[in-house]
Write a structure and sequence with these properties.
Elements lengths: L5 H20 L6 H8 L4 H7 L2 H23 L6 H12 L2 H4 L1 H13 L4 H22 L5 H24 L4 H22 L9
Helix pairs in contact: 1-2, 1-3, 1-4, 1-7, 3-4, 4-5, 4-8, 5-8, 5-10, 8-9, 9-10
Length: 203
């Protein structure tokens, strides 16, 4: 009988190996063989646990989304102000884990491939909607709903753009910190622009 926890460990090995393979070869050039070589496991395990390469790629991307969610949960407190929650969202997107070489290259490959793959496009849309929703929730605490929704879309675009700039620029610590600071400053400017309207009617 398999050892307790072996399936979870094997699945995680294959997900980590997917990041490594995509980092080296890109998403399209990564194959069952290259992924299993990185994991040091037999190719049959991908079919056993994920069905095929596509299933493994999707599971790996869902893992990235889950890690981003976990960061937000772990760093958000009930007594935080809306501004502080917005800062945590920025920090989550610029966390060192999400900007390390293998994960950032996987994100980039994911975005590019989602233009041609409907399943990946759905995951990309989930990721985008989640970011906008999280931002909008906090913005609505300090401005009218219509302004909050607009601000959320604008802030999300700024975060994505600065993240891409940091990654393509080599994502040194200085570049990451600068991008994170710019995103926070932009969010502060949106709050200043629309004014702090606590207890806005209709929220």
């Amino acid at each position: 009988m398999p050892k307790v926890g072996m399936e979870a460990a094997r699945r995680q090995q294959l997900i980590d190996a997917t990041f490594a393979s995509v980092s080296k070869h890109g998403m399209q050039a990564s194959t069952i063989t290259t992924i299993c070589h990185e994991a040091g496991l037999s190719t049959g395990l991908i079919s056993h646990y994920f069905g095929n390469k596509q299933g493994l790629i999707e599971a790996s991307l869902r893992y990235l989304l889950t890690q981003l969610h976990h960061y937000l949960v772990e760093h958000t407190r009930s007594d935080m102000s809306a501004q502080q929650r917005l800062d945590v969202i920025v920090e989550a997107n610029f966390s060192r884990w999400h900007l390390r070489g293998d994960t950032s290259k996987t994100w980039l490959s994911f975005w590019a491939q989602s233009l041609h793959n409907s399943s990946l496009r759905r995951l990309q849309q989930v990721s985008s909607r989640r970011l906008v929703s999280n931002l909008s929730y906090s913005f609505q605490q300090i401005m009218p709903r219509s302004d909050a929704e607009q601000s959320a879309h604008m802030a999300a675009a700024m975060i994505d753009g600065l993240w891409l700039r940091a990654v393509l620029g080599g994502y040194t610590d200085a570049q990451i910190e600068q991008s994170e600071t710019f995103a926070k400053q932009y969010i502060s400017s949106l709050i200043t622009r629309y004014g702090e309207c606590h207890n806005v009617p209709g929220l």
